[in-house]
Design goal:
This protein is of the alpha/beta class and 339 residues long. 43% of the residues lie in helices and 18% in strands.
């Protein structure tokens, strides 16, 4: 309500129209990608011609972003592009992102790390950028902690899409080294993706099928957090990292690569362990340290939980977003943009 009337146009598996409230309508467009884009363009153009909109906001710096900035220029409506990270960032995509971001009225990023990347790599003007992290709403219920030794299967957990940028393969290799020294361990991998079968073959080649469990896609991941003893996050690139905050909400000690919210929320040896990107040896060392030092993992888990609890509330987050939108859509901002 505080944001006014919102119309959301999204690509989806099938066409669908949903009125969620008096001020929020969602229109989904199915079909092949090009057809989705055409349908979104046609509907957006009709909306802009028949109603007054103060702002267009889009969560994609590529094709949807191109549609948004083109529509914005055609209808004289400011455009905000939200950047949550880059998964495929090369060749034509870099050029397209640079074009879209140069035409945007404002760019929202989810971390200071991402802000610096856009300024340096894509030459986005710093005055266009503002930081608003991904809001994470979690009701944390904590199962009793397991023992402080490892006569039981100590469980490392990772959750995410099984794509190359998540680098789950490195977790498997590092786990193999740890399991050779401490047999009472397991790794649970929650998620699905194009690399599932190749990762399963990797596990089979290491003869670790009894210790590394692929749980597949799960709509409810609560029990996996509750049953875990430590959390792994080994992406090569990341805009933020919501699952890290979910792990923190469950008091799990965290090992993560130096991406996303690392050093902004999770700080090395304060509320987690941060390792260099693609450093398999350091990952194995950190995993072994969690096994050998129960006091350390308990301390880091508690500290991560305190950090999570200190994050802005839902109301504070909404207020920040509305202030940012008003700033972008104000007449003064439009004058500055076109000057």
């Amino acid at each position: 309500e505080r944001a006014g009337e919102i119309t959301a146009l999204i690509p989806a598996d099938e066409n669908m129209e949903t009125i969620l409230s008096q001020g929020l309508a969602v229109y989904a467009f199915g079909g092949p990608k090009l057809l989705q884009l055409f349908r979104i363009w046609r509907r957006a153009l009709r909306e802009l011609q028949t109603k007054h909109y103060d702002l267009i906001t889009v969560q994609d710096p590529y094709f949807l972003g191109f549609l948004a900035v083109t529509l914005g220029e055609k209808s004289h409506v400011p455009v905000e592009v939200q950047v949550h990270g880059f998964e495929k960032f090369n060749g034509g995509r870099v050029r397209l992102a640079r074009f879209v971001l140069s035409r945007a009225s404002a760019v929202r990023v989810v971390s200071n790390r991402l802000r610096l990347t856009l300024c340096k790599t894509l030459k986005v003007k710093s005055q266009k950028l503002y930081i608003l992290p991904v809001y994470t709403q979690i009701e944390s219920r904590h199962a009793p902690r397991k023992g402080t030794h490892v006569p039981y299967p100590f469980t490392f957990l990772t959750i995410g899409r099984l794509v190359s940028v998540k680098n789950v393969a490195m977790q498997i290799r590092a786990f193999a080294k740890v399991a050779a020294k401490t047999p009472q361990v397991r790794l649970r991998i929650v998620g699905d993706g194009p690399l599932l079968e190749s990762l399963k073959l990797q596990v089979k080649s290491l003869k670790l099928e009894d210790k590394i469990i692929f749980e597949g896609h799960q709509d409810n991941v609560e029990r996996f957090y509750e049953e875990a003893d430590a959390f792994l996050f080994t992406s090569d690139s990341e805009g933020w990292g919501r699952v890290v905050l979910e792990a923190a909400a469950h008091k799990l000690p965290i090992i993560m690569t130096d991406v996303g919210l690392a050093r902004e929320v999770i700080k090395n040896e304060e509320n987690g362990l941060i390792i260099p990107i693609q450093d398999e040896g350091e990952l194995a060392r950190a995993m072994q340290e969690f096994l050998d030092k129960p006091e350390l993992r308990a301390c880091l888990g508690e500290a991560a939980f305190k950090t999570f609890k200190s994050l802005p509330s839902r109301e504070a987050y909404i207020e920040k977003q509305i202030i940012a939108w008003k700033r972008v859509s104000s007449p003064a901002a439009n004058i500055e943009r076109t000057a």
